Amino acid sequence: MKPKNLAAYFFSLVVLVFVTTVLFLWPDRMGLFFGLITAISILFVSFLKPFIGLLLLLGFIPFQSFFNFFLPPIGTVWMGAAIRDGLAAAVVLGWLFRKLRRKEAFSALSWAEKWAIIYMCVVAFYIPAAPVLEGGLVGFRNMVGYVVLFVISADVVDTQRRLLSVATIVVLSGFVLGLIGIAEVLTERDIFAIVGYDMVSLMGPDLPFIYLGTVRATGGTGNPLEFGLYMAIAGMICAAFLAARVPLIRRKFLIMPLIVMLAALLFTYARSAYVALFAGILGLVALSRKRRLLAPLLVSLVLLILISYTPYWELLGPRFKLEDTPGIATMNARVEVWKTVLKTGFSEWMGSGLGTHGGAVGRAGLDPYFNITDNYYGSILMQVGFIPLFLFLFFLGILTKTFFRLTRSQKDPSLKAYAASALTIVLMIAVNAFFSSAFESRTLSILVWILLGSSLRLEDNCHYFQSDKPHDY
């Protein structure tokens, strides 16, 4: 990672921690004033330097729940969510400001970027028809709002150094989050009590925190399905660079993060995340056809063997074999959910409206068929019907074709590894969406669209990555 970018990233994190401390220790007007000034300064830097804003977003979103808990809310909006969307808005506005000021052409967009914009515009037409406007706006944000970061990342992440900076931030953040998840399980969440973090009171009792009386790893996010998919995606980036034998941080320093994230993933007991990781590893092996790419699979098998000698295997074993009672009940319930989803989808081909399912339900204040469909495709179908669902599936197809071509065309090992990880991430999201609605998570949405957008510039390798002259933003 370029020293200047790394220094800016860690300096900004220190500033964010300072804001948290100020607001927590001095929750009076003076503390709020200094916190507000600091937050505005961070947003201003993100506006001036959208690339730094993207790095801040990637480093912030895994730990947003802690900011939600420790910082005072803004009305009915959690402070962590406000910082997240504030950073995203600053990046978008800063990027647009420079494009318009310099009269840079938008016609140079790739087909994948154009299709992303088409997808966003089509879903936007459903906002006026939403039963509740606020729920429709939140539903739009959750479903397609962050796709704009895909387009911005494709433009801003325009050198090899910037590309590797993005990957480094994801791996480091995933490593820290994975350590938190492992400590959470081993201490039965006592680690959170030490710092005064009450996850259950923040998230509510409905999320599956516990499995057969055992704590599930969530990394403080509260959702083991979301956390598991995050670990799978970050772990896959580690695996791609390890298998390609090219430096990201240092090759030997990637082994520990990979082991930590795989262990944290196992402790989620989330089969949808297991399936996504398995699909990603198989995709990575098939892409390069090199035996050394079996290393991530071997690491996973070694971890399983070691865990099989611990009490945790009594939980993991039946989970893998589909023999656990809660798992069977969940599968049966998902089958019934899907039957209702398809029945409703065919009868309401335009959907029941944005914000009527998923994370936007609270804002809409409606009584949905299901709060969680356990299927991302079903969530799209239930809200906006077949047309946006087809556009999303076609978008995934375009990304698959694009990244497959880039994987085959790249000569530089590190760029080839990044292209391969992008393709496997698309595959993992596509597979996971059949079994989980975890991709409705704003954290995962931001992570995935920035990673995939960053990979698009690999197509311009000769011009951008060999010259290594970035935009000034």
How would you characterize the overall build of this protein?
The protein has 473 residues and is mainly α. It has a domain at 1-108. 71% of the residues lie in helices and 1% in strands. The chain has a two-stranded antiparallel ribbon. The longest helix has 27 residues, at 160-186. 49% of the residues are buried.
Name a few traits of the molecule.
473 residues; mainly alpha; 2 strands; disordered N terminus
Total strands: 2
* Strand fraction: under 5%
Identify low-pLDDT runs: 1-5, 461-468
Helix content: over 70%
Instruction: Report the C-alpha radius of gyration, rounded.
Output: 21 Å
Count the DSSP helices.
23
The best one-word shape is globular
Give the strand line-up of the largest sheet: 1-2
Q: Let me know the average pLDDT.
A: 77
Largest sheet: 2 strands, antiparallel
State the end-to-end distance: 17 Å
**Helix/sheet category:** mainly alpha
* SSE sequence, one letter per element: HHHHHHHHHHHEEHHHHHHHHHHHH
Secondary-structure map:
Blueprint: H1 3-25, H2 29-48, H3 50-60, H4 64-70, H5 79-101, H6 111-124, H7 133-143, H8 148-156, H9 160-186, H10 190-195, H11 199-203, E1 210-211, E2 214-215, H12 224-244, H13 251-266, H14 271-288, H15 295-307, H16 313-321, H17 325-347, H18 361-364, H19 376-384, H20 386-409, H21 413-435, H22 442-456, H23 461-467
Antiparallel strand pairs: 1-2
